[in-house]
UniProtKB/TrEMBL annotation:
<dbReference type="GO" id="GO:0003677">
    <property type="term" value="F:DNA binding"/>
</dbReference>
<dbReference type="Pfam" id="PF01381">
    <property type="entry name" value="HTH_3"/>
</dbReference>
<keyword id="KW-0812">Transmembrane</keyword>
<feature type="transmembrane region" description="Helical">
    <location>
        <begin position="80"/>
        <end position="99"/>
    </location>
</feature>
<dbReference type="InterPro" id="IPR010982">
    <property type="entry name" value="Lambda_DNA-bd_dom_sf"/>
</dbReference>
<feature type="transmembrane region" description="Helical">
    <location>
        <begin position="165"/>
        <end position="185"/>
    </location>
</feature>
<feature type="transmembrane region" description="Helical">
    <location>
        <begin position="105"/>
        <end position="124"/>
    </location>
</feature>
<keyword id="KW-0238">DNA-binding</keyword>
<keyword id="KW-0472">Membrane</keyword>
<feature type="domain" description="HTH cro/C1-type">
    <location>
        <begin position="17"/>
        <end position="61"/>
    </location>
</feature>
<dbReference type="InterPro" id="IPR001387">
    <property type="entry name" value="Cro/C1-type_HTH"/>
</dbReference>
<protein>
    <submittedName>
        <fullName>DNA-binding transcriptional regulator, XRE-family HTH domain</fullName>
    </submittedName>
</protein>
<keyword id="KW-1133">Transmembrane helix</keyword>
Length: 186
């Protein structure tokens, strides 16, 4: 349950109107309405007052939002890490013709892009491991905020092995093929 639902539910539980609650928290009735509709979020002082008024712990008041925020931050890290990997791969591949035709000095940015691509992939892998999402299906469910169904451990291992082989072969094909094509064309 998120903070807006908690405020609305607890306000009704203590049989208080938005206006009465607003007076006790030292804000306007519109502010209470905004909190209950999820348009804004209470500041720390207001959260402490609400916790006291509702006779519940601060943790209980904001627990649902904290979990939602954690998932949002992690999925954002995975998303941006994935974008960074793709960007650095494209930049790395686009530098290859310059290395062959223009100068070997272009090898330095090529290596830097490769290292940044590896760093991005390690970030994504760390997030996947921390949240136990390894298969593509699990990653998609996690990124979309859906609840993951538990998988049989034996089936999970088989799927992970199969996907690892696909990743390695796909990476070799795409990376090697792109490099060979670019070097052959230029």
């Amino acid at each position: 349950m998120n903070i807006s639902e908690q405020i609305r539910m607890n306000r009704k539980k203590i049989r208080s109107s938005q206006e009465d609650l607003a007076e006790r928290v030292y804000v306007s009735r519109q502010t209470i309405s905004s909190w209950e509709n999820g348009k804004s979020y209470p500041d720390l002082q207001s959260l402490l007052l609400l916790s006291e008024i509702f006779s519940i712990s601060l943790d209980e008041l904001i627990k649902g939002d904290v979990e939602e925020m954690k998932e949002k931050v992690v999925s954002e890290k995975m998303k941006w890490g994935s974008y960074a990997m793709i960007l650095f791969f494209v930049l790395m591949v686009s530098m290859m013709p310059f290395v062959k035709r223009v100068s070997a000095y272009f090898m330095v940015p090529l290596v830097i892009f490769a290292l940044l691509m590896i760093a991005s992939s390690l970030l994504v892998e760390r997030e996947k491991k921390m949240h136990q999402v390894q298969t593509y299906e699990e990653i998609l469910e996690f990124m979309e905020g859906r609840k993951m169904d538990p998988m049989d451990p034996v089936e999970r291992k088989k799927r992970l092995r199969r996907e690892t082989v696909y990743k390695v072969l796909g990476g070799l094909l795409v990376g090697g093929g792109s490099a060979a094509l670019i070097l052959w064309i230029f």
